[in-house]
């Protein structure tokens, strides 16, 4: 079996995380970064989750799981340390809900990759459950190669691409310029500023 990789827009979508431990904390942090509307159902929560609750970023239902907790959720994370409860969560979900089961991934319909974010750049690494530790190691190795300067570089490329698309250049020239901008020289912030300051002159050179 092989999985279909996608990047979901979760803005304003209801996410319910069941369990308040280590894995739940990781899931919640990422769901919040994705602008989901997050609730947690658990008798206790980690310090990290408690901080989110105090900041009113997450709603806490301090209780054990019951099937009605996930009725209107778009995305459900079964992250308790009780396999029977995780199975019950998966069984309670409807066929149109996204469900991730952290202890028995085959009971859900998606798995979570190891992720490196640099602004608009997302690098996701998955081993389809063969070795989550390898996914994490590869992600960590890539973090030096794609350092924080990529945040600004991606913004620069995004701005340039919009300008190039709006221009009346022939499609082949547009592609040529877009590819030129991938030369490492354009990762230099000073050069990026210079190009943006006189963009018309820059595209005329090509
Ligand atoms: C990548 C990452 C993303 C994240 O979770 O955020 C992730 N697991 C991470 C780490 C990790 N997980 C585990 C260890 C201990 C070592 C080990 O057991 O190997 C470590 C290492 C560590 O913690 O250092 C234990 C573990 N994991 C799963 C099971 C159940 C099973 O395999 O059946 C068990 C046994 C539990 C038990 O003992 O009961 C299952 C899954 N874990 C996945 C993702 C999905 C497949 C991804 C893939 O293969 O690429 C999948 C299938 C389902 C899912 O979770 O969606 C995250 C690192 C990212 C980060 O740190 O940012
Ligand atoms: N997918 C992964 O990346 C990964 C990594 C490590 C472990 N795991 C698996 O995930 C499970 C959870 O790991 P963890 O480190 O977060 O565990 P944990 O012990 O830190 O947290 C478990 C949480 O589940 C809550 N809980 C227990 N029963 C509940 C119920 N009936 N209703 C609601 N909440 C309930 C507990 O109160 C606790 O907050 C592990 O048991 C293991 O099987 C998965």
Chain-wise SSE layout:
Elements (H helix, E strand, L loop, with lengths): L13 E5 L3 H12 L3 E5 L5 H8 L3 E4 L13 E4 L4 H10 L5 E4 L12 E5 L2 E5 L6 H14 L3 H18 L4 H10 L8 H9 L1 H6 L2
Parallel strand pairs: 1-2, 1-4, 2-3, 4-5
Antiparallel strand pairs: 6-7
Catalytic activity: precorrin-2 + NAD(+) = sirohydrochlorin + NADH + 2 H(+)
Keywords: NAD, Oxidoreductase, Porphyrin biosynthesis
Protein name: precorrin-2 dehydrogenase
Content-based structural category: alpha/beta
The dominant shape is elongated
Which CATH class of the largest domain is shown?
Alpha Beta
Instruction: Estimate the helix proportion, in percent.
Output: 40-55%
Describe this structure in words.
Its EC number is 1.3.1.76. It catalyses: precorrin-2 + NAD(+) = sirohydrochlorin + NADH + 2 H(+). It is an enzyme of class 1 (oxidoreductase). InterPro entries: Met8-like, NAD(P)-bd_dom_sf, SirC_C, Sirohaem_synthase_central, Sirohaem_synthase_N. The chain is of the alpha/beta class. Helix content is 42%, strand content 16%. The chain has 8 helices and 7 strands; from the N terminus they run E-H-E-H-E-E-H-E-E-E-H-H-H-H-H. It has helices spanning 22-33, 47-54, 83-92, 132-145, 149-166, 171-180, 189-197, 199-204, and strands spanning 14-18, 37-41, 58-61, 75-78, 98-101, 114-118, 121-125. It is elongated. The N and C termini lie far apart (46 Å). The mean pLDDT is 97. It binds ligand PQ2 and nicotinamide-adenine-dinucleotide.
């Amino acid at each position: 079996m092989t999985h279909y990789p996608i990047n979901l827009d979760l803005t304003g979508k209801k996410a319910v995380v069941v369990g308040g431990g280590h894995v739940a904390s990781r899931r919640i942090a990422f769901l919040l970064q994705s602008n989901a509307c997050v609730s947690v159902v658990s008798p206790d929560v980690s310090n990290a989750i408690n901080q989110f609750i105090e900041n009113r970023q997450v709603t806490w239902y301090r209780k054990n799981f019951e099937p009605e907790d996930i009725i209107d959720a778009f995305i459900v994370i079964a992250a308790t340390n009780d396999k029977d409860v995780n199975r019950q969560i998966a069984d309670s979900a409807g066929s149109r809900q996204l469900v991730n089961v952290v202890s028995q991934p085959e009971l859900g319909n998606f798995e979570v990759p190891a992720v490196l974010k640099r602004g608009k750049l997302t690098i996701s690494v998955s081993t389809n459950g063969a070795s989550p530790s390898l996914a994490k190691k590869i992600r960590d190795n890539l973090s030096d190669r794609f350092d924080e300067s990529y945040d600004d570089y991606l913004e620069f490329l995004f701005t340039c691409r919009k300008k190039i698309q709006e221009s009346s250049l022939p499609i082949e020239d547009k592609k040529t310029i877009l590819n030129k901008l991938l030369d490492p020289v354009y990762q230099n912030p000073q050069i990026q500023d210079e190009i943006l300051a006189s963009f018309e002159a820059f595209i005329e050179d090509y």
